[in-house]
Amino acid sequence: MKLAKMYSISVLTLVVCGNVIMGSCDVKLESSLLTDLVEMLLKKDSDKGCALFNRKKIPAFSAAMTKSKSLSSKEIIKFNKVFTNIQNGYNPSTGIFTAPIAGVYQFSSVVMSDNGKFLVATLWLNDTVVSSVYIKGSAYQTGALSMILDVQKGDQIAVKSYGNYVIYSDSLNYSTFSGSLISQ
Length: 184
Known about the structure:
Blueprint: H1 2-21, H2 27-41, E1 60-64, E2 69-71, E3 81-86, E4 90-91, E5 96-98, E6 103-113, E7 119-125, E8 128-135, E9 142-151, E10 156-161, E11 165-168, E12 176-183
Antiparallel strand pairs: 1-3, 1-12, 2-11, 4-5, 5-10, 6-9, 6-11, 6-12, 7-8, 7-10
Helix pairs in contact: 1-2
């Protein structure tokens, strides 16, 4: 909420100042004043600046499995190939994302069942199941989990097997897990 208010105030300030500047000076001076105002409001890498413009401060991860795995009940699925891990919240050796900062996050996972087999996967927030997917087919089938969650710093999010199943994946990354902060 603070970020949205700060961003709104900065944009409002820019619009108001821009309207005052425009028409009151010559073209070169107008351009220079607006440029200075924008740079002042959006200082690069400032801790007091708007995080919206500094993508390295926004926690986000995306990972995939590179091979199939037999899973036991409530076993955490480890997505070992990491594509993105900004703020290092995702640990591929445990399969757990630990929120580095509090906020509203979007999480998604796509899982593939073994050929003609059942697969039930669950998305967990700490010790609570927040979403499940049930897959049964006559061939390889995919299912998806997606949730928007209000997460506290240190909360843990993982995808687990609901029973004794095989999750399928290979070098084409059929099974994936991703998440990112969407609001503070």
